[in-house]
Write a structure and sequence with these properties.
By secondary structure, this protein is of the alpha/beta class. The chain contains eight helices and eight strands, in the order βαβαβαββαβααβαβα. β7 (about 240-250), α7 and β8 form a beta-alpha-beta unit.
Length: about 325
């Protein structure tokens, strides 16, 4: 377990010289780790000194069963401060390439259309400023994905593929009267991108009919995921060169991640999921990632840690590609 506060005598947790962020003479006091992803401090935790930018967007307006996704980004960040920085799978410390965490992006309240438009504009500015840096967004509900995907689709010369980890297709035209619902996230962008959705097990008839009518939508059900690794090659083969990964944590079996608004029985397991992710990062150009729909439960911290570890695993695979 990592320490819960910096060692004043040590170099920064992200490597290199410590960056003074406190008044001179007070930095030897027992301050907690910074509230950014992994608790990094030093030059590698600055915008200029990092190769990965974490963008927390705690937006929640349309959850249809359990709520709390607005608390997801901070729970993920808090848990991440206790992750070991060395990754034994890749035999390296991915944090050494630097990870900067933005303050939470607060969107307009009470008007979903305005909030989504505001996010699309803000996300566009962030990725423009990022240049070659990797941008990983933490939601919030799944509706935050559609404006980010739209921005990335416009930036790609090739047609963008979306790899969607999800229990649900999210292809409803509207849900509960809103086209901006979390249940409509992929419907908002399906004319612009190809979709490969994995782990599905809660689908409406409307959505499956839409998927069957569109060659650009590939569906891989949870039963296929549970039956061996053939689904991994199937998913990768349907992806184009440029890939956006959107990861709704209700993809996982609820025994692993019960902390989500609409948990479905069955679902993805940890190691097969990592095998797919690693293969995608190694064989495709991942343009951006989001992780959404984590709704932390009081007193149950294992899912917070799992999702934080998932984010760090993707940072590690991404920084090797």
């Amino acid at each position: 377990m990592t320490p819960n506060r910096p060692d004043p005598a040590a170099p920064s947790r992200s490597g290199g010289a410590r960056l003074r962020l406190l008044p001179e003479g007070l930095d030897d006091l027992p301050w907690e780790l910074p509230r950014g992803f992994l608790g990094l401090y030093g030059a590698g935790a600055t915008p200029e000194g990092s190769d990965t930018w974490i963008l927390p967007v705690p937006y929640e307006a349309t959850t249809s069963f359990g709520g709390g996704t607005r608390n997801g980004p901070q729970a993920i960040i808090d848990a991440s401060r206790y992750i070991e920085l060395y990754d034994h799978e890749t035999d390296r410390d991915p944090s050494l390439s630097g990870i900067y965490t933005f303050p939470q992006l607060e969107l307009a309240r009470g008007n979903a259309a305005e909030a989504i438009a505001e996010l699309e504009a803000a996300y566009g500015r962030v990725v423009e400023e990022a240049g070659d840096r990797r941008v990983l967004m933490l939601g919030g509900e799944h509706s935050v994905s559609s404006p980010a995907i739209a921005v990335q689709a416009r930036r790609c010369e090739n047609r963008l593929s979306v790899l969607q980890f999800d229990a649900h297709l999210d292809l409803r035209a509207t849900f509960e009267g809103s086209p901006y619902s979390h249940a409509c996230a992929l419907a908002r962008v399906m004319d612009q991108v190809d979709i490969v959705a994995v782990g599905l097990r809660g689908i409406s008839q409307e959505e499956i009919e839409v998927a069957r009518e569109r060659p650009s939508v590939t569906t891989i059900m949870a039963e296929e995921v549970a039956s061996g690794d053939a689904w991994i090659d199937q998913a990768v083969d349907r992806l184009g060169e440029d890939v956006y990964i959107t990861f709704d944590v209700d993809y996982f079996d609820p025994s692993l991640v019960p902390s989500t608004g609409t948990p479905e029985p069955g679902g993805g397991e940890w190691y097969p999921t990592l095998r797919l992710l690693r293969k995608v990062f190694e064989s495709r150009r991942v343009v951006a990632v989001d992780v959404v729909e984590h709704a932390p439960l009081p007193g149950l911290h294992a899912p917070d840690f799992l999702v934080a570890k998932l984010v760090y695993k993707m940072v590690g695979y991404w920084s090797r590609s």
